Amino acid sequence: MEDKEFQNLQRRLRETRQLAEDNNELLRKVYGILWRGRVFRILYWVIIIGVAIGAFYFLEPYLDQANTLYGSFQEQLNAVPGFGGGS
User: Fold this and answer.
1) CA distance 83 to 75
2) What is the pLDDT of residue 80?
3) pLDDT the model gives residue 87
4) How far is CA 30 from CA 21, 34, 37, in A?
5) In the 8-state DSSP scheme, what is residue 83?
6) Based on the number of CB atoms within 10 Å of its own CB, is 15 exposed (0-12), middle (13-18) or buried (19 or more)?
7) What is the model's pLDDT at position 85?
8) Dist. CA 78–CA 85, nearest whole Å
9) What is the pLDDT of residue 28?
10) 85 Cβ neighbours under 8 A, 6+ residues apart
11) Quick one: three-class SS letters along 7-65?
């Protein structure tokens, strides 16, 4: 009877070891997926922020020109008597 119990115990131990190895493999895969996801999320935001800064850098001369035009238009409007803040 002891021999049968010992064999049963060995079998269960082998199954437990196999399950532990399978779990370890799955955990490593999950860790890799999480790590790649974190890297891609950082790259995503770097690209979004970089595009926004780049767009502002390239559009800045046009925005400055529009701001200057608006300022001169506002000055001309104020120069008209009875139409703006000036009289």
Assistant:
1) 11
2) 80
3) 47
4) 14, 6, 10
5) T
6) exposed
7) 57
8) 6
9) 98
10) 78
11) HHHHHHHHHHHHHHHHHHHHHHHHHHHHHHHHHHHHHHHHHHHHHHHHHHHHHHHHHHH
- List of residues 6+ apart from 65 with CB closer than 8 A: none
pLDDT confidence of residue 45: 98
The C-alpha atoms of residue 61 and residue 45 are separated, in whole angstroms, by: 26
Per-residue pLDDT of the chain (87 residues; tens, 9 = 90+): 688 999 999 999 999 999 999 999 999 999 999 999 999 999 999 999 999 999 999 999 999 999 999 999 888 888 888 775 554
Contact 84, 77 (CB under 8 A): yes
CA distance 36 to 25: 17
The angle subtended at Cα 30 by Cα 28 and Cα 31, nearest 5°, is 65
